[in-house]
């Protein structure tokens, strides 16, 4: 699942290490060839004058407190020259199981299942223009941009061998609960250089570290990539309760019983006279 | 007003949950039942994960059964000895139930088993109650007299078992194995269904053990407190699915609702109450049964999990 981030053209440096094997008579043509290649590379890959892409978030921490009902994080940035911007937001990964129901003896029963590894628990994209106008599918596929370009490792359990139905079901379900967005949301440009977009995190946003990748695309090619983290974590009472319930689970259970018992006793005292 | 539930990991409307607790509390006060069989399906219906619903309902039942038993205790309607014997069976049953629950959850079949248990038990009990209540209504209308009581001492197979013990408060001399088995079985249900099991326990006490009706509810509530407390603690340890915040909201709504329900219920004839309860139980049963049979919108379900 590693993303390849090498720019095309970096493989040319391998030629230089093979110099010893070249005979003297071929030196001049070789040097010429090197020069040509250098000129070609220089022409196509312009040296970075300034940072072509700058981005930041309004907030690097989304705090889930007791009153949390979802939130928006503002992503803003600037590009040097005209170009398109595509953003992916990827939540913490988790192993998921997708189960398929089958009718057995008249009732619907979970039967076959597929285990999908390293599934992002949140995924969203945003783009400055309709994505098909920005670049072709192959570019997005090679950078794993978009839900259809995620390579989940699946293990099937049962007779089914085709995992595509299960993958579709996963995407459909995650979209339904609001954790995946199927269509990229809009990145708006304030001028030719400045852009902004809101990333929405719903109330059921999973906690963990998110990675936001920002791609600058020009003429169907990726010019620059910026990556920035975002942490979603519970704070305040809800965080402490969750933490306590997992760390001291027996004590938590006993406290839950005592509180409930007290509430029951209190109720009978309050309403006794009536 | 929204509140984020720390264990369910979702935000819910406070008024909705209070109203839910209040409504179920009203029903439980009206009919004299725990209401667990309503709370769990309703929580699932409102999108709370089934595992959290079951475990949290058990926690809520601790509160409602305790406030209920205090009333019966003052009137001397609790057979402590019988309650303790039932409790021993109940603790074993509920402990194994929590284990079964965790195992079924890992298999991905817990939702099915919860639904099936509900359909079978609610259908059986609701059907039997409906028949009994409508007969009683019919009889009182025709004769205008009181309902004839069933004979207390029926000497069937159950009464030939060894280990006979005398239960003075219930006026019974039966084998201790009987209440132990009943307790075990109801404890199992408490863990699997998130219910107090009163709706199974009460008929079992009357028809299998032959206990007098006056002590049945108090004694069943008495042992339900401990069995549901056991389930709450075990679920906390094994599945981390007890949500204190959710339980407290439910309790707050339920205790108020129960008072109104009890007052309202005092004005209605017992057999009409039983018929009403039977209708409610059957309605929940039919709803759950239809969900099992009707083709779901999506044949696939997604859950966190690994091999």
TrEMBL record, chain B:
Source organism per entry reads: Thalassospira profundimaris
What are the UniProt keywords, alphabetically? Cell membrane, Membrane, Transmembrane, Transmembrane helix
Indicate what this protein is called per its UniProt record.
Answer: Probable membrane transporter protein
Cellular component GO terms, alphabetical? plasma membrane
Query: Localized where?
Result: Cell membrane; Membrane
Q: Report if keyword RNA-binding is assigned.
A: no
Its predominant location is membrane
Keyword 4Fe-4S on this protein? Answer: no
Report the Pfam families cross-referenced here. TauE
Which parts of the chain span the membrane according to its record?
12-45, 83-104, 110-131, 170-192, 204-229, 241-260, 272-290
Homology family: Belongs to the 4-toluene sulfonate uptake permease (TSUP) (TC 2.A.102) family.
UniProt membrane topology term:
Multi-pass membrane protein
Highest taxon in the source lineage:
Bacteria
